[in-house]
Amino acid sequence: MSELHVRIEGIGAWLRGASDWNTLRAILRGAHGLREDAPLKPAAAALPPAERRRAPEAVLLAAEVAGQACRHANREPSSIPCVFASTHGELSITDYMCVTLASAPCELSPTKFHNSVHNAPAGYWTIATDCEHASNAVTGWHASFGAGLLEAATLALAENTPVLFAAYDTVSSGPLAEMTRTTQPFGAALVLSPNGSATPLITLRLRAGTVSELAALPSALSTLANDNPLNAHALALLAALAQDSPARLTVPAASGLLLDMEVLF
After folding, report:
1. Fewest CB within 10 angstroms: 25, 55, 185, 186, which?
2. Mapping DSSP to helix (H, G, I), strand (E, B) and coil, where does residue 83 land?
3. What stretches of 112-256 adopt beta strand conformation (E)?
């Protein structure tokens, strides 16, 4: 694969204790720990009030970080394509669907079913923001972050347009928690641009191999990073961006396929 070069115009992030990129950046730089007064639920201001009330956690989380990244980049959400990535989507609804189908299938909620599909956050986002550009929902199990980032960067360069990339995972529940353990909601988003003067610049390269160990994170974020690979991979890139200095890291993009990243400021 030839090198892909994209610039980061905007960043968004949300977790309990750090409800925006500036707060998380300070934590990654060791300035302070998680904030006890931070919101316990994503605001998701891009969604209309009625949609916010009925939207599941994955939709709120994805909409919150996507909105942050667009504001940071000074981009209208309606003006750019988007890529959403998640390891497992909304596991609480998947658990509900399995239990209901096994015990009382006629009582299955149409709204719950509507929100169970993997592209629900992308659908809510594009409808709420009147975005008529391409939208993709990507999953690659433990390589979901790298797969989504590669998809967004490729789209940005192929179409010569900025692209919104949002990655998120919610808390797992029921028997599915034994297969995919996630104890804390987390989301991150980037607006990637194929040209311009925005910094930092990221160079992406694909190669075969196995992932080397990622750099250590502040203790306040270690549990979150250990929750699932998407969290660890997203936080590794955000940690590199937080330092405002050149960095290299590698995350998986598929089984046996690695995405090497070089970050330049």
Report:
1. 25
2. strand
3. 135-138, 163-169, 186-193, 201-208, 247-254
| pLDDT (0 to 100) of residue 1 | 59
Q: What is the pLDDT of residue 212?
A: 67
pTM: 0.95
pLDDT at 119: 93
pLDDT, the chain, mean: 93
The helix (H) or strand (E) run that includes residue 189 is strand 186-193
3-class SS of residue 119: coil
Report CA torsion sign: 199, 64, 137, 232.
Answer: positive
3.40.50.1820, 3.40.50.2300, 3.40.47.10, 3.40.640.10: CATH of 8-197: 3.40.47.10
Q: What is the token pair recorded at 41?
A: 């639920």
Whose tokens are 């939208």? That residue is 135
The answer to whether the CB of 81 falls within 8 A of the CB of 157 is no
By the 8 A CB rule, do 93 and 116 touch? yes
